[in-house]
Amino acid sequence: MKTLDELNLPADLKYDADHEWVSAAAGRIGISDFAQDALGDLTFVELPETGAALTKGEEFGTLESTKSVSPLLSPVDGKVTAVNEALNDDPGLLNRDPYGDGWIIEVELSDPGQLSGLMDAAAYRKHLEETAE
User: Fold this and answer.
1) Phi, psi torsion values for 48, nearest 5 degrees
2) Which pTM was predicted?
3) Predicted confidence (pLDDT) per residue in 98-124, tens digit
4) pLDDT for residue 133 is more than 80
5) DSSP letter string over 22-63?
6) Ramachandran angles phi, psi of 37, nearest 5°
7) Over 52-72, what HEC string results?
8) Average pLDDT along the chain
9) pLDDT, tens digit, for every residue of 39-94?
10) What CA–CA distance (Å, rounded) separates 32 from 36?
11) Which of 97, 36, 96 has its CA nearest to residue 67?
12) Which CATH number describes the domain made up of 4-112?
């Protein structure tokens, strides 16, 4: 398991307490480096359909690893505009490149103002420090 200092937390993303990230620029959602590291080797990803409605805090898919099955919870309200189909053949992309090729979905935000309620990288790192204690 990585230490907090070893985690990659890009400053241009917003994070939620459930360890998902949102790229406001690309409208993408994925899981954080912390989440992929905690889950271990990912073996299967259940993805939503394009056009599916997302509700903040509600499940939109699942991740299966050698350790467990975990829900993907939406950090924002919106509509799925694209799904990363590459994850069907290679779920390990989430482990190897959680912020690049391992993105999960693209969304059209219903309320861009919800982004202000998410954490920046510094606040997310502090959240991880506090929950690790």
Assistant:
1) -75, 170
2) 0.95
3) 999 999 999 999 999 999 999 999 999
4) no
5) EETTTTEEEE-HHHHHHH-SEEEEE-PPTT-EE-TTSEEEEE
6) -70, -40
7) CEECCCCEEEEEEECCCEEEE
8) 96
9) 999 999 999 999 999 999 999 999 999 889 999 999 999 999 999 999 999 999 99
10) 6
11) 36
12) 2.40.50.100
Q: Which residues contact 109 (CB under 8 A, 6 or more apart)?
A: 27, 76, 77, 78, 115
The residue with tokens 């230490």 is 3
What does the domain layout of the chain look like in residue ranges? 4-112
| Residue where the block lists tokens 């502090």 | 126
3-class SS at 115?
helix
> CA separation (Å) from 96 to 28, 42, 56, 57, 102?
17, 10, 26, 26, 7
Query: Is the CB of residue 130 less than 8 Å from the CB of residue 123?
Result: no
H/E stretch holding 122:
helix 121-132
